[in-house]
Write a structure and sequence with these properties.
alpha/beta, Rossmann fold, 2 domains, about 45% helix, globular
Length: about 280
């Protein structure tokens, strides 16, 4: 293993991996503390390993390996992650409620939360690449790792685009064109289409300092289609008052009774029971 490729989820990590694969013939693997034992036991045999984990959770003997961190506007990342929960986990919760869960990131969930994840890696990374730049000039941005990793000359005719990954298949994220929904929009600033103002306010309360540190600004000039719906605010209040305690106690109960089960078994039970309880709360 020669390089860590880290990011908060939905921040361009997969796009970066597909560029390495398609243009440089470099394969990569994944390190994840939840699924490592099932799917990626041989990750150390790959030159490049992607992860969303906090830096502190890496295996101690691998912490000195060069590191690249991909940074994306946290609002775009959280919106994309919420819709991935709907598309893949089949959550029936409203996307804005899922966004709240990710913004709060209680008990170190969601890979520590956006700010913690960014701060954890930015302190130690050799190269930090912004998603917004990666989309505009992918080869230029990938080439920035040359000082820490021996890149061959790229095959420029093979540069993947966001649409090609979504529609034509991709080695990572959409192999054999089976998971088109893995790639959603890939457009910087598209969070405005899906994030009500009240959610941006909450996000900025928890993550505004880190956002400002990396040049992202609060936007008070947009209007989301959900902003005028009173029911949105009522549902948010219900979720904060009732939903979060449900989450906390439900997860602890399931963890105790499924201690020897794979983590995905626990999560499947968690999501099924949570949806039933939330339908009662509504």
């Amino acid at each position: 293993m020669k390089l860590w490729l880290a990011s908060y989820p939905r921040s361009g990590n997969t796009f970066f991996r597909n560029i390495l694969h398609d243009c440089y013939s470099i394969s990569s693997s994944t390190f994840d503390t939840q699924i490592e034992f099932r799917k990626y036991v041989d990750y150390e045999s790959f030159d490049v390993v992607k992860t969303h984990e906090l830096f502190e959770l890496l295996p101690p003997h691998l912490k000195d390996i060069p590191k690249v961190y991909i940074l994306r506007d946290g609002r775009d990342a959280i919106v994309s992650q919420a819709y991935q929960m709907i598309n893949y986990k089949k959550s029936t919760l409203a996307p804005y409620l899922l966004m709240i869960d990710m913004i709060l990131s209680k008990d170190n969930s969601h890979y520590g939360g956006w700010s913690s994840n960014v701060e954890s890696w930015s302190r130690v990374s050799d190269v930090i690449i912004k998603f917004e730049d990666l989309i505009l000039k992918p080869i230029d941005e990938v080439s920035r790792i040359k000082d820490i990793y021996n890149l061959p000359n790229p095959e420029l005719d093979n540069i993947p685009s966001f649409q090609s990954q979504k529609n034509d298949g991709a080695k990572y994220g959409n192999p054999e064109n089976k998971f088109q929904h893995f790639f959603r929009k890939g457009i910087p600033g598209s969070w405005r289409d899906d994030m009500p103002m009240i959610i941006q306010d909450l996000f900025w309360k928890y993550h505004g300092n880190t956002m400002s540190k990396y040049g992202y600004t609060f936007d008070n000039n947009y209007k989301n289609v959900l902003d005028d719906k009173i029911s949105i605010k009522k549902n948010i209040i219900k979720y904060l008052v009732y939903g979060k305690p449900v989450d906390k106690h439900l997860y602890k109960i399931l963890l105790n009774i499924t201690i020897n089960k794979p983590i995905y078994f626990l999560l499947s039970l968690y999501y099924i029971i949570r949806e039933l309880l939330y339908s009662i709360i509504k």
